[in-house]
Amino acid sequence: MEKRTKITVRDLNLYYGENHALKDVNMNIRENCVTAFIGPSGCGKSTFLKTLNRMNDLVDGVRITGEVKLDDEDIYAEGVDTTVLRKRIGMVFQQPNPFPMSIYDNIAYGPRVHGMKDKSKLDAIVEESLRGAAIFDEVKDRLKKSALGLSGGQQQRICIARALAVQPEVLLMDEPTSALDPISTSKIEELMEDLKKKYTVVVVTHNMQQAVRVSDDTAFFLVGEMVEFGDTKTIFSYPKDKRTEDYITGRFG
Ligand SMILES: Nc1ncnc2c1ncn2[C@@H]1O[C@H](COP(=O)(O)OP(=O)(O)OP(=O)(O)O)[C@@H](O)[C@H]1O
Q1: Which residues form the ABC transporter domain (predicted)?
Q2: Percent over 70 (pLDDT), the chain
Q3: In testing the pocket of ligand 1, which one of 13, 16, 177, 205 has its CB within 8 Å of the most ligand atoms?
């Protein structure tokens, strides 16, 4: 079945001061799919990911032109509440960054900030989020213990659960496995397959095999330009652009 577009990007340009870091990017990100961004270091993958939930707003000297729509809403329109936006579009980073508090409190943090006080509802959200991130069984007997006592791979799944706890629609993942061992990496990759049933997932990865394994669509970036975008199998089997072909065959990067 053809998937509908969840995020539409039109003519997006981003400048860090004089540095033109994203050049006329256009993309339709499909709902309930995993979209991967690949490309060599410094090509703008993370910068682009962050424009999708306005995380770049926090950086001094950034200027953005163009349009990003979530469903039919322009996320850069005047009056958009970025707290609400980031609740709808959650984010997971390269380094697992659980808060220095209990596993339970990490997950309950977002719902509490958004006003949830009811203990039994919070309990249910915590369990559901941990299950959604495939870590409930591993931590159910130590919910009151510090999240910092978990392994890196478990911490990353706690961060995913924390993002799920506020019921997002989209999950942005910035190289979520690059700090993890192969077993933790494959757990997160399996999880992505599951997550896309409920959410729209966008992942930046350095690892082309990972893009092939987990994603439906792939975008290839090179010095701020989105060179090629489309169905992952097609991009990796029949790249249209010579630069994409050179990159995926390992000629540079
Ligand atoms: N906060 C910032 N301030 C100024 N320039 C920045 C900032 N963040 C990134 N840049 C610049 O923007 C360009 C794109 O960087 P970005 O981190 O988005 O690339 P990337 O493809 O994600 O790289 P990597 O894979 O190494 O993380 C680079 O030239 C980088 O130096």
Answers
A1: 7-248
A2: 99
A3: 16
